[in-house]
Amino acid sequence: MSIIHVLDDSTINKIAAGEVVERPASVIKELVENSIDAGATRIEVEIMAGGTSFMRVTDNGKGMSLEDAKLAILRHATSKIQEVADLNTIGTLGFRGEALPTIASVSRFLLLTRQEGQELGTQVKISGGKTPDIQEAGCNIGTTIKVEDLFFNTPARKKFLKTTHTEGSKINDFIVKLALSNPSIAFKFINNNKMSVATPGNGSLFDAIQSIYGGQVSDSLLGLAFESEDIKITGYITKPSMLKSSRGWQTFIVNGRIISNKAIAKAIDNAYHSLLPKSGFPLAVLEINVPQRTIDVNVHPQKSEMKFEDEGRIFKAVYKTIVDAIRPAGQTLKNVAAEVEHVERHYTMEPMHFVPAAAPAPAASGPAMPAAAPRTIYEAVHRPASAPAVSFAEAQAQLQQERQTSPRPAETAEVPGQTYAPAEAVLAPAQEVAEQPSETSAEALAYEGSIVPIGQVDLCYIIAQDAKGLYIVDQHAAHERILYDKFSAMAESIPSQQLLVHQLLDFDHKETELIEQNQELFRTLGFDMEACGENEFRLKEVPADIPAAEAEDIIREILTSLHDMHALTAQEIRHACLATTACRAAIKAGDELNLRQMQIILEELSHTARPYTCPHGRPTILKFSSDELAKMFKRTGF
């Protein structure tokens, strides 16, 4: 009995996508998805010349009978659904029945298929959509489809194809995503007789990621786990130290289907807020499972987009999942931050172009007026300097004088290969964070003379020098440490500022309960909120050291942290909340600073108790001593 049937006209009209095969990757996508739907455990894909001259997909699925093979090449013939109502519970990747006839109409098409228990299989040949040649043939169990001379009869479409390298890369990217979404299937991808992708198919997503991206990526993976009433999220994401150049390295899988979704991507960006440079994305593989009735997959011809019943819930679930992975409750980021013990040095012979930091604001003509001191460091680094700073030439002259007049103390012993400041930077235990520790000679960042800022690199790092060497400072991490120490020193409460225009914030039921239970905590942190409706609050005051635009994000991140903090002490909760507030309020990578603003950051950092790490454990400053610089430039040994 045939399992493939032609849909009725009513159903066809509702699901018809006008499927267009626009490039070889479109062909591979449809054929491989059919193989997955057929229950294959091994799928092999081979292409030549970017897929324009030859494509082959072979699987060990259940195959088709002679009757089904005849029907499969007809439009809107499918075994996946019977009627429109079936779309509410569709669990297969394909369902429209348009792929095979569309592909066969623009190529030289060959299908070989055999079911278990049959002595002979079926061969279907179609050239450019003409009458098919169907006959019995010997073949393995499963299905093999060959597509040759794609667009040979539609030269206008062929003209718009990219280079064979580009087309092959798009196919490779798609195979990678399919392999990640189906770790129980062993994939092989052969491109121009070279093996490009090979996965074990043992059901382990971690092993699939390792086989595709290599050991370096797998070593930086953080596991994801989230489960609520009807949403389950698993997968992996890389540490902030492992970044990729584009979102192409992020794979979102919903109910086994690969999709692109702006809300999910935004949730990842928000969770990694302030942990990433101005450019770069973490590698992510997210597997999201929701009730089939809550999604609609029939919204895009290529089924690459999906409509959620409640996209806001998906956003919150993904955000919480990522935050829990990169900032575990009761722990610091020491285990996920970038390692700085062995800095990899790269030497190039390319021409160097120096762009100085923005010059200080020129002094106004007329008599000098005393400038009002900035009330907060945030204000200091986000407004032009009100008084002229020391010029670079003057700073250099001062530095030279200090080098000549100050005796150079004996160098401290350093660990071989260590390229950061010798002081050990260790985050205080959670029991001690509620109190501001006193500065000690071992922890305080002591400079020999003044540290002079030179400029910025990538609008992210401050470059500075003193009489003993060169410093590279992460401006966000440094400011985060400054703000955290300042907040920690305020035992009772953080000063707040009233908002001229109150903000209305909406929360869900659980978040509302957390706010009501922790009203006093929010007040000590500088946030004044009052209920103004069901699950709605009016934000009237925010901490004086943070921009009002960041207030809502800080509150929501604190709520996310509080959700998993039932077993922690009040001091630990305070530490986590202060660290979150400091992180959100700190200047960001990408903020341009002038020399005066850099000087403020460096001076404030030098007076913190633990200047070498931010509250989350990431390094704030690297030091290259004069001896280290000499070794790097091979100026030793003579």
Pick out its properties.
single chain, 638 residues, elongated, alpha+beta, Heat Shock Protein 90, Ribosomal Protein S5, domain 2, 26 strands
Structural description of this entry:
With 638 residues, the chain is an alpha+beta fold. The chain folds into 4 domains: 5-202, Heat Shock Protein 90 (2-Layer Sandwich), CATH 3.30.565.10; 214-326, Ribosomal Protein S5, domain 2 (2-Layer Sandwich), CATH 3.30.230.10; 377-407 and 417-486 and 592-632, formyl-coa transferase, domain 3; 495-585, MutL, C-terminal domain, regulatory subdomain (Ribosomal Protein S8, Chain: A, domain 1). A hairpin with a 3-residue loop joins β20 and β21. α6 runs antiparallel to α7 and α13 (475-489) packs across α18 (595-606). The longest helix has 18 residues, at 164-181. The radius of gyration is 31 Å and the shape is elongated. The N and C termini lie far apart (89 Å). Mean pLDDT is 75; it is low at 9-19, 329-378, 382-389 and 407-449.
